[in-house]
Design a protein that fits this description.
Blueprint: E1 5-9, H1 16-26, E2 37-41, H2 47-53, E3 59-63, H3 80-85, E4 90-93, H4 96-102, H5 106-118, E5 122-127, H6 131-135, H7 139-150, E6 163-166, H8 180-197, H9 200-205, E7 207-210, H10 216-223, E8 230-233, H11 240-250
Parallel strand pairs: 1-2, 1-8, 2-3, 3-4, 4-5, 5-6, 6-7
Length: about 250
């Protein structure tokens, strides 16, 4: 059994006071939720207060990105050692906005994934195609390249924590959502690629999340599918009631 995971990506929103207020309102709404792993990914400046506010609860805190070096002259970066030191448990790697605006590549995703696994962080590796790729029938080609390079050199024996998030770029922040069939087909293909690159056993146990305009009203239809193990939620995770409803609906 793969435990469902619902992760909130707050992107560049919420100062520390707002993160604390969100968590105060959110925790009572999910207090009885035991079936789903819940992760909040605030900005770097809100990590500390979010960790304090969720201490002793079932809610985990993740970072939105990290560097792959342990330390060094990398101004502005945050290392896995630093995340470990404050008890961050998860980290997003290769989100489409990081790829688009900050020149992250499949190769840098691979470096970060290796570092995350080495430092016992749960990596949520994002993959997905642009609108032009889908319209030209290249979705599987794009996913295959992202996974082949991103997972290159990963020891299957160390890959158990791996999480993949399929985020069709054309559905992020656009209001468009992949149909359940489109999402399931992409997740099934991703799982087959993991089996080829790592092993069938790792593929069977790896959680694959859907990310792309997930809302309370479509969470159930997406998360009930065989190969979809949860969601990476953007805009709808900024409101505690909305995000709690997504979690509740995804477990129906």
């Amino acid at each position: 059994m793969r435990k469902p995971l619902i992760a909130a990506n707050w992107k560049m929103y919420k100062i520390p006071a707002e993160a604390t207020a969100f968590i105060g309102a959110f925790l009572p709404l999910v207090a009885s939720q035991e079936k789903t792993e819940i992760v909040l990914c605030p900005s770097m400046t809100s990590l500390a207060v979010s960790l304090e506010a969720t201490k002793g609860t079932q809610v985990h805190i993740g970072a939105q990105t990290m560097d792959w070096h342990d330390n060094g002259a990398f101004t502005g970066e945050t290392s896995p050692v630093m995340l470990n030191a404050i008890d961050v448990t998860h980290v997003l790697i290769g989100h489409s906005e990081r790829r688009q605006y900050f020149n992250e590549t499949d190769e840098t995703v691979n470096h970060k994934l290796k570092a995350a696994l080495a430092h016992k962080l749960v990596p949520i590796v994002c993959v997905g195609e642009h609108k032009a790729d889908r319209e030209s029938g290249r979705t599987n080609d794009v996913l295959k390249k992202q996974l082949t390079v991103g997972l290159q050199g990963i020891d299957p024996a160390a890959a158990a924590p791996l999480v993949i998030a399929y985020e069709p770029v054309w559905a992020i922040g656009t209001g468009l959502t992949a149909t359940p069939q489109i999402a399931e087909d992409a997740h099934k293909f991703i799982r087959a690629q993991i089996a080829e690159i790592l092993s069938p056993a790792i593929a069977a146990s790896t959680r694959i999340l859907y990310g792309g305009s997930v809302k309370p009203d479509n969470a159930a239809s997406l998360c009930c599918l065989e190969n979809i193990d949860g969601a990476l939620v953007g805009g709808a995770s900024l409101d505690p009631t909305s995000f709690a409803q997504i979690i509740a609906n995804s477990s129906i």
